[in-house]
Structure formats: C-alpha cells, structure tokens
UniProtKB/TrEMBL annotation:
Protein known as: Class I SAM-dependent methyltransferase
A single GO molecular function term of this UniProt record: methyltransferase activity
Entry keyword set: Methyltransferase, Plasmid, Transferase
One biological process term in Gene Ontology: methylation
Chain segments annotated as coiled-coil in the UniProt record: none
Cited PANTHER family: PUTATIVE (AFU_ORTHOLOGUE AFUA_2G14390)-RELATED (PTHR43861:SF3), TRANS-ACONITATE 2-METHYLTRANSFERASE-RELATED (PTHR43861)
Domain of life (superkingdom): Bacteria
Pfam families: Methyltransf_23
Protein source organism: Azospirillum ramasamyi
C-alpha cells in the first residue's frame, strides 16, 4: 500500500492553488487557526515543503525504525511550524458536547478507555468529566502531556501506536479509541495495530475507530492545494470495505458503522447510532461511488451527508467474547 507522496514531484503544485490570500484562508480554516494570527503564503508553503519531505521519509522507513522516525517527524513538524500550536483556535471554534456526546452512547457507562494518538486529549478530557477512567497516549512528547490537566481522570503514556501489547497487558481495557489517527500510520502497520488493539481489549471489548473516508478526501494538507490524493502526512486514506477486511483479519468479529447527524442538525437534534444494517448501507453506497470517475466520486463523497454517507469511516468493532 502507498499514497502518492512517493510519486508526486516535490515541487509540483497546481498553478491556481499555489499562493495568495485565498490559499492562506483555506489553510486557516483547515487547521482551525485564529483569524487574528499573522499567517502568510510563505508559511503555508513552508508547511507544505516540510510535510511532503517527512511523508516520503516515513513511507520509506523499515518497521524497526518507525517509532523513532515518527516521533522525530512530528517533533520536526510542530517545531518547524510552531503556529499549528500557537494559533490553534479550538476554544472558539469547537464545542465538546456537540463533538463528543455520541461517544457516551457508543461506549456505554464509565469504564477503562485507552486512546491511541490523543493529541490535546479533548475527547478524553470530555470522557473523564463523565467518569471514564482514561489512558492518553502519543507517539511523540512534543504534544500531549502538556495539554492534560493534572487533576483530570487521565493517565498519560507514550507508545508507538502500533505494538500496543508491548506497552499494556492483554485483556486490560473495555474500549480502545482512535480518532483520525490510522491514516497517519505507515500502511504496512495498520493490521498489526488493529491486532494489538484486540489483544489489549477485554473479551467483548470495543474498538471505536474513525478516520477520513477516501472518497471525501484528501483530508490532509493536500486539500488546501486542491489535490485529488493525500500526499502529505495522511500516508493513506481508507474505504469502508478495506477497513472492515483489516479488522476481521485482526480478529474482530462484529463490525458496526456509526452515523452522526451533520453539525448543523446536531445543534438541534443530536441523533446518532451504530448498526450492522447501516454498515451494509454504506458499503452499498461506497460500491456505487467506486464505479464512478475519481473526480465525480470525490464530489459526491464530500456531499454524502445528503444521503447519510458520512465523509469518514466510523466503526465500532467488537472483540469476540
């Protein structure tokens, strides 16, 4: 498996997407950056050049090199583009209850939860406020621990995100969560990651996984430049079918698709559910979209909410009891 990061020339950008105020505003919206932070097109291009180089380097790594390589890559990224932390405007653009309330239903009552790739741990801080016992993890020390208040019900740990059973005992957690993390992993490590998730889950435990859907992408920096494929730090974006196949290969038996209404509706009606019937529906829609030309299926994928096809793969996978 590969993305196009190792085939697209490093200096190639669509001429009409390469600069100007419109580029800066797309970038600002994409990364939820403060409208008052002084961004320039040169800064956007610096980010582009850095991510393109790092993505190629990560795709070329050997398995035994990856933890160090990924830690170094993300440390390099956030130190080279400090505005990604400095200008982030989450407090003014996000609502934890609207963003995360459905996780309370998907998880069930308070329990032991392990999150892969926690970042600022917004989700875990929300769950901790509702009584969940949470473990936050990150591949790098550049972000993560500094974002977690010391008085919350959260334990901070470091791991490579893949070989979880080397860091945690078997059958330890009720649920494991990863939100928009798997697309950043080396494609060759994804099944290994899922197998390790199954190992650290209790019998009957849940893996709740969400990531951008291939047909609604690209969802990394490539989107800002109008590209059709991810060529930056999303090393691969996935479809429902291949995700389900990998989960079954990793030992999960029951797979449910999650539906959450669009944010505009969610402000009035927070409707959400997970079911195998809905999983069958999204597989059917995906098969139809897959027969269309790339440009058309991406356009339809991006407006999929009109026909209950979310722009992400969002599943609950169950470990056998």
């Amino acid at each position: 498996m590969q993305n196009t990061a190792d085939t697209l020339p490093m200096d190639r950008l669509p001429a009409d997407q390469a600069g100007g105020d419109a580029l800066v505003e797309r970038y600002r919206r994409k990364f939820h950056l403060s409208p008052t932070y002084p961004l320039t097109a040169e800064m956007v291009h610096r980010h582009w050049d850095l991510e393109r180089r790092l993505a190629r380097e990560l795709l070329a790594t050997k398995p035994e090199e990856r933890w160090d390589a990924f830690e170094q890559a993300y440390t390099t990224l956030y130190s080279g583009c400090p505005w990604l932390n400095e200008a982030e405007d989450d407090a003014n653009t996000r609502d934890d209850d609207l963003d995360f309330r459905h996780f309370l239903t998907l998880l069930g009552g308070p329990q032991d939860v392990y999150e892969v790739g926690s970042g600022k741990a917004r989700l875990l801080r929300y769950l901790a406020r509702h009584g969940y016992r949470c473990v936050a993890t990150e591949v790098t020390r550049e972000r993560g621990a500094n974002w977690i208040e010391q008085d919350t019900n959260i334990t901070w740990k470091n791991s490579d995100g893949v070989h979880l059973a080397q860091f945690e005992p078997a059958d330890r957690y009720d649920s494991v969560i990863s939100t928009h993390v798997v697309e950043h992993m080396h494609p060759d490590d994804v099944v290994t990651h899922m197998t390790n998730v199954r190992t650290i889950l209790k019998p009957g435990g849940k893996y709740i996984l969400s990531m951008p859907h291939k047909y609604a992408g690209p969802a990394d920096l490539s989107e800002v430049f109008g590209l059709d494929e991810p060529v930056c730090m999303h090393l691969r974006e996935y479809r429902w079918g291949e995700t389900a196949a990998m989960l079954r290969q990793a030992g999960f038996d029951r797979i449910e698709a999650v539906y959450v209404v669009p944010m505009a509706v969610r402000r009035r009606l927070n409707l959400h559910f997970a079911s195998r019937a809905y999983f069958g529906y999204v597989r059917m829609v995906e098969a139809f979209l897959g027969r269309l030309p790339l440009t058309l299926n991406r356009k339809l994928g991006r407006v999929g909410q009109l026909f209950m096809f979310r722009p992400e793969v969002f599943v609950v996978a169950h470990k056998p009891k």
